[in-house]
Amino acid sequence: MRYRPHRIAARALILLEDRLLLVNAYPGGKSDLWCAPGGGAEPGHSLPDALIREVMEETGLSITVGPPALINEFHDPNRGFHQVDLFFRCTLIGGHLDPRWKDPEGVVTDRRFFSRQELEAGHIRFKPDSLPAVAWGNQMLYDPLERIVR
Q1: Positive or negative, the Cα torsion across 124, 150, 24, 138?
Q2: Domain containing 63 — which CATH number?
Q3: How many C-beta atoms surround the C-beta of residue 60 within 10 A?
Q4: Phi, psi (5° rounding) for residue 26?
Q5: Domains in the chain: how many in total?
Q6: Closest CA to 83 of 8, 1, 5, 139
Q7: What is the pLDDT of residues 88-144, one digit of tens each?
Q8: 2 in any annotated domain
Q9: 127, 32 Cβ separation under 8 angstroms
Q10: pTM for the whole structure
């Protein structure tokens, strides 16, 4: 299998009242996997601009983008897919989670704030595995290449 060019994506680490915002981006309940909101960057647009747009689309929330906190890579060798996610520390500046909000692209089906204890207890599935350490930490991390999970 030949790999396509790397996909670059930006992800938001948004803490509110010591809880981390995660989204489920699997239409139709195909998976119970949660991840930080965000998505692919378009050529000619900065990663922060892409992240502000993606967070608004997926959650209805307005953010400011701070410093990078994590570089995470994952791939699917069966499909020739390789993505590099750059996670940024972000600050919520407007909006609230409204259960009536609909992602205009129909990708995100649920959004919720989770405590560190909920993530570390193993009751929900999320990626990357380093998410709690980076969200509640203060250092920049690199999470090496791992196989994609669904």
Answers
A1: positive
A2: 3.90.79.10
A3: 17
A4: -130, 95
A5: 1
A6: 8
A7: 999 999 999 999 998 898 889 899 999 999 999 998 999 999 999 999 999 888 888
A8: no
A9: no
A10: 0.92
Strand ranges inside the chain, DSSP E? 7-16, 19-24, 33-34, 38-40, 62-76, 81-94, 110-115, 125-126, 141-147
Q: Whose CA is closest to 37, among 17, 57, 18, 19?
A: 57
**Structure token pair of residue 120:** 């570390």
Let me know if 92 is exposed, middle or buried by CB neighbors in 10 A (0-12, 13-18, 19+). middle
Residue numbers of the domain that contains 140:
7-147
Round to whole Å and give the CA distance between 33 and 48: 24
Sign of CA dihedral 147, 32, 88, 128: negative
Count other Cβ atoms within 10 Å, centred on residue 34: 22
Contact criterion met (CB below 8 Å) for 31 and 150: yes
Q: Would you say how long the chain is, in residues? A: 150
